[in-house]
TrEMBL record:
Keywords: Membrane, Transmembrane, Transmembrane helix. It comes from the Bacteria. This is Uncharacterized protein. The chain crosses the membrane at residues 6-22, 34-51, 63-84, 105-128.
């Protein structure tokens, strides 16, 4: 019988990307970042305990609870080159149905695209291949 923690492990994969889409300021502010980081460490601790106590089938979706820590650190690491190059935080670009030709926010769009690919798709691929 699967536990609640294992059944809803997909939530661990999407916590940080959801915050990224809703409000990037929360990930950037020091106080809120520390609160989210402590929460993700608590999730990882519970996951480590569950992995040591129970035996799981493959693929082990319980490992998705480690994704929030990975996503937070990835976001912070990706901000460093952006700050060095652009001297600002990435902006949330406006949603467009068709490409408008405006290249002023291309770096911001690329930042968001790479972050989502690396924080959502990469962990899923790695867990499914283990």
């Amino acid at each position: 019988m699967n536990s609640f923690f294992e059944e809803f492990s997909i939530i661990g994969l999407v916590i940080v990307p959801t915050i990224f889409f809703i409000s990037r300021k929360v990930l950037r502010k020091k106080d809120s970042f520390i609160i989210i980081f402590c929460f993700t460490i608590a999730l990882a601790s519970i996951t480590t305990y569950k992995l040591s106590v129970e035996e799981f089938l493959k693929p082990n979706f319980l490992l998705l609870w480690y994704s929030p820590i990975y996503s937070l650190l990835l976001y912070r690491l990706m901000l460093i080159p952006f700050w060095l190059r652009k001297k600002r935080d990435p902006k949330i670009p406006p949603r467009e149905m068709f490409y408008s030709g405006d290249v002023s926010l291309i770096a911001d769009k690329l930042f968001g695209f790479i972050f989502i690919i690396l924080s959502v798709v990469l962990p899923m691929v790695l867990i499914l291949n283990t």
